[in-house]
Amino acid sequence: AVVSTQSTGEQQKGIKSETMRLEARETALIQHCLKQLSDTMSQIGKLEVAAEQKSEEIVLLKRDLSEVTSSLTELTKRHIQLIDDNNELRMQVYGGRENA
Question: Is the model's pTM score more than 0.70?
């Protein structure tokens, strides 16, 4: 049989000391995890705000794009009409020369 060189009281003090050390480490780890969680939640909040702002910008840009597309369509129609008018005038000018 192995004979212990420590008394039961010394063993209990050692176990108690080790338990306190481990509990303190556990508390420190929990506090560290809570701080990381808090930091992460803060970052998520900031990213949500940024995403909302980008979403609003996209809505405005889509509206602007729609307006520009509409203007382009109208200008294209006007350009085609002016080309047709110009061709009519040319035919009248050439027709007037031929009759003169």
Answer: no
DSSP letter string, 4-57 = PSS-HHHHHHHHHHHHHHHHHHHHHHHHHHHHHHHHHHHHHHHHHHHHHHHHHH
Q: CA Rg, the chain, in Å? A: 42
> What does the pLDDT look like over 50-72, one tens digit per residue?
999 999 999 999 999 999 999 99
N residues, the chain:
100
What single DSSP character describes residue 1? -
In the 8-state DSSP scheme, what is residue 2? P
